[in-house]
Amino acid sequence: MKAVWYERNGPADSVLVVGELPTPEPGPGEVRVRLVTSGVNPSDVKSRQSRPLAAARIVPHSDGAGVIDAVGEGVARDRVGQSVWIWNGQWPRPLGTAAEFIVVPSAQAVAMDPATDFAVAACVGIPVLTALQALRLAKLQPGQRVLVIGAGTSVGHLVAQLCVQAGAQVIGTVGSARRAEMAQQAGVQTCVNYKTDSVPEAVRAFSKGEGVDVIIDMDFSSTVRWMEPGVLKPHGQLIGYGSNQPGEMSLTFRPLLFSSYGLKFFLVYDLLPEDRAWGLEQAQRVLREQTLQVEVAERYPLDACALAHQRVESGQVAGQVVLDISTL
Which domains does the chain have, with CATH numbers? Predict the structure, then answer.
């Protein structure tokens, strides 16, 4: 099969290889999916850049969609021919969705609604499930104020939509005019450009000095610097799912204690079984009802995987980047 892989960390155009690998065979409880699309997420880029390799060769990407063409022992034969989307395709295994075929446990190939586009389906495993879990943990009530960090990013755009649908008042950080446009389309009431404006001042103005009830955060290394009085109200909570700088960062304990803040972090790859089951059910619902706008911004062929990584890495894409692998 045709695939993309890397054998060391480094820049995309230096380490990503396009070539032929053996086509995998499904084992007991597994299915093989002929991939049509593969989603490229920031976590895929970060893994290729610096995460220690768990095997001699890594085929990247955890998200994708395609058609089951073979099943292993114990899997119903009628799954063959079924259109599916993939979650945790490259977690914690070495062979992900940047290939013509992938083998995964049957439960990780979720039957697609016929109305769902394969490109959109390649954006569910990480972006949609992350947004849904963030809202599940936030437990928003109508009328609450929410600060969405990165409201014009692929995940933040989904988070903003879900917050608005829950009846919240939303302020979002953005880094460009295009991302501000996306955030506003999602229903964000106030956008603040974190590159040019003071986020704490904007939040205080938005919340009339009271602070927001919830921060939903994709870059804790930046947000931690904005934990000033009037940003997060007493007894407010921060729900975090990422950080651009994963190393040490400092927090002052006394304000956290005296404001009774709640800090909750989660990794979408490693959800509790009950959270995973709920997320899969809700993802199927929003896909079926088309209540979330999934923005597929750029599409590339498998051969251009390095360019796709560079585009995600640039931070300039307003939406999701998808690889087109095959046609049905």
Answer: 2-123+294-324 (3.90.180.10), 127-269 (3.40.50.720)
CA distance 206 to 212: 9
Q: Where are the beta strands (DSSP E) in the chain?
A: 2-5, 17-20, 30-40, 63-71, 83-86, 101-105, 109-111, 145-148, 169-174, 190-193, 212-217, 232-240, 262-265, 296-301, 320-324
> Residue 251 has what pLDDT?
87
User: ∠ CA 29-34-36 to the nearest 5 degrees?
Assistant: 135
Residue the block writes with tokens 């890594």:
58
Tokens of 118: 């394969």
Q: Based on C-alpha coordinates, what's the Rg of the chain?
A: 20
> Which residue has tokens 């490259």?
90
N-term to C-term CA, the chain: 16
Give 173's contacts (C-beta < 8 A, 6+ positions apart): 147, 148, 149, 150, 151, 191, 192, 193, 194, 199
- Tokens for 226, please give them: 């904005």
Partner residues linked to 95 by β-bridges? 59
> Is residue 81 within 8 Å of residue 307, measured between CB atoms?
no
Sequential DSSP letters for 204-273: HHHTTTS-EEEEEES-HHHHGGG--TTTEEEEEEEEE---SS-S-----HHHHHHTT-EEEE--GGG--H
Return d(Cα 215, Cα 159) in angstroms, integer.
11
Closest by alpha carbon to 89, among 12, 157, 31, 21?
A: 31
Count of C-beta atoms within a 10 Å radius of residue 70? 18
* Mean pLDDT, residues 228-247: 93
Residue 310's CB is within 10 A of a number of other CB atoms, namely: 16
3-state secondary structure of 213: strand
The pLDDT of residue 130 is 98
pTM (2 decimals)? 0.97
Asked if the model's pLDDT at residue 327 lies above 90, the reply is no
What lies within 8 Å, CB to CB, of 208 at 6+ separation is none
How many residues make up the chain in this entry? 328
Average pLDDT over residues 159-170: 98
